[in-house]
Protein 1
Amino acid sequence: MVSIFHSLKITGRFAPGPALLLVLFIGCGKTEFPFQPNELYTAGLMRESGEGEPRLIAAEASSMVAKWFGTSDSPSIPDFLLEAGVSDLDMEKVLRCAGPVGRAEDEIERGLFRKHCVSCHGITGDGYGLAASLLAPYPRDFRRGTFKFKSTPSGYKPTREDLIHTLTHGIPGTAMPSFAALEESREFAHDIENLAEYVRYLAIRGEIERKLIAKVVREGLNLSEENAEAQQIAIAVARRWQESESAKVSVPSPPTMTESELAESIQRGKEWYASELTACVKCHGPDGLGNGLSQDYDEWTKDWTVLAGIDPKHPKDWKEMKRFGGLKPVIDRPRNFAWHAYRGGDDREDLFRRLVLGIEGTPMPPIARAQGGNPGLTDAQIWDVVHYVLSLGRKG
Ligand code: HEC
Ligand code: HEC
């Protein structure tokens, strides 16, 4: 049923009556592109114990989460989250992104996620879209609940504004495109906001699923909708998303400088960069070419390597995870500053934010910032480092 709707690409000119639409939407209650169970994570967790069938546990967790959060055509949120006052998801926005691409009887376009994102991030937001294995870095799996480019400290979720920033500007130097063009059209002006809300929905749904799987595998949790422990897990995840807005770290205004003051600032920044206190050289190398001695694997690929007790350096071992969808483990390279490709933005404020917050889910640590008696760099010294890093980028 849904596939008819999908292939007809129903538009205003060819709009079926409300009754037919109702049938098309509700259909036979089946969705053609269901959320996928998280088999890879389950298999990673279970590999060392060697007991039980990962696919079975993953399927059970998936169907339990579906009772709470609905399907990719018809998303929902469970009452207990609303009752606990921890869900701030705007379901009107979420619904616009869900389902097949097309227009509903109110003429409003739906299926925004399938239209714009699914080829890379997959229907479930698991990062296993058709193009995923060809891309470096890989598209992100939102279900991990970890986001890199945000204005909140490590351990906190991104704010809505952070996700909107990522969608508007894209992630330069990666396949993640900018969707700024949507904002310029009257019809699609709010699509970025809607899509940001859908990312929150997929991330909340997916992280709850992950946490439940971990509880089942490690502690034998009995999965049932009414289980208070399972509900508490869901409440804790949703609460973290609600708390993000209040955790936002603001960035001071960048200093105004004459050309010669800037040259001095760059010189001071160079010294901080090379100092033991910042340790930048360890990863980015003495000239900032991203060739330091410390290099680590992409944290997301550790789900099916390190977590499963597999050394990512040994292809023979990780290949056994391929049947659950595991991709080749890759190194998360420290940035080469000569490229001048800054994923979180190249304004001075963006770089200051990256330095003081680090990049969560990657080896990039927050810089030691002198605050409340803690030893570290003052804000003026951090601006020096920002100026030095930017001075290494190729111009034009
Ligand atoms: C052509 C492939 C592609 C498409 C299409 C795409 N993305 Fe991405 N996306 C990526 C890649 C690759 C990354 C990882 C970049 C990185 O890790 O630095 C990413 C990362 C992200 C992130 C994580 C940012 C962070 O802070 O960690 C979000 C959120 C995101 N994409 C949302 C979307 C949404 C929503 C859409 C559709 C509107 C979309 N993407 C479409 C490839 C894509
Ligand atoms: C332990 C290793 C490590 C150390 C130490 C480290 N970095 Fe990084 N840095 C990384 C990695 C890895 C990335 C790429 C992360 C990603 O985007 O996936 C990165 C990314 C960056 C970026 C890119 C931000 C963007 O928006 O693209 C900047 C700028 C940066 N580092 C500056 C620094 C500076 C300055 C220092 C010292 C104060 C430093 N780093 C210390 C590993 C490190």
Note: The first helix runs from residue 2 to 8.
Protein 2
Amino acid sequence: MTAFELFLVLAGLLMGSGIDAAADRFAREESWIAGRSRCRTCERPLAWYELVPVLSWAAMRGRCRSCHAAIGWSAPLTELAGGALALAGVAWAPPGTLVFTVLLGWLLLALAAIDLRTYLLPDSLNAAVLALGAVMVALTCPADWPVHLAGVVIGFGLLWLVEVLYRRLRGRDGLGRGDAKLLGALGMWVGAPGIAPVLLIASLAGIAAALAGSVRKAAPLRATSAIAFGPWIALGGFVVWVMQPDDFWLSSQIY
Ligand SMILES: [Zn+2]
């Protein structure tokens, strides 16, 4: 592993910490990037040594030092996910796309963290996935624009159609518009041929998670149970992006 790759993984741990805090603030309808990190229970500002990813949480045994409120698992898990996504990029990013791949992973982690808390996928983050994908296409495979643009249209159009038909047939909302926007934005990355595999992974993972959740809560899964689908679309998109065969669409190499 090069020094730069190690830097990306360590940055991923910090990025995960920031994403967890930002998702919490978003869920409480506070400003995303507001001031110092505080204990979510007693509001005491945290010292730098309480903000070291994973280690601080482990050292404090998952509790605030002053009020002893449980900090919960979301912080260490999101931090580890940020590092793991960078590691996945180092291991599997298509040639010449390491930085793009890692940034994509962190954007998707932020979308997932927010969707799990609020059932919302902010337009700004979906737009960032789309814009980063467009820059990636422009710099690494400009000859393939049609395939990637078709991915955007098909990805958005497909889930938009499902959303509209479901509402018409069942008289209530099934999918959020954010899900269609996210799949469209990921279409820029995986191209038209990648949409079906993304949806397959997203559906299987989403169903598995919903079943696991209903077992844990000992409540039966109903057609009306609220399920965040965004995290699973994000997972499918990242997996299909990193698992594409080398030089499938990418012609040149640029960091
Ligand atoms: Zn506290």
Note: The chain has eight helices and no strands.
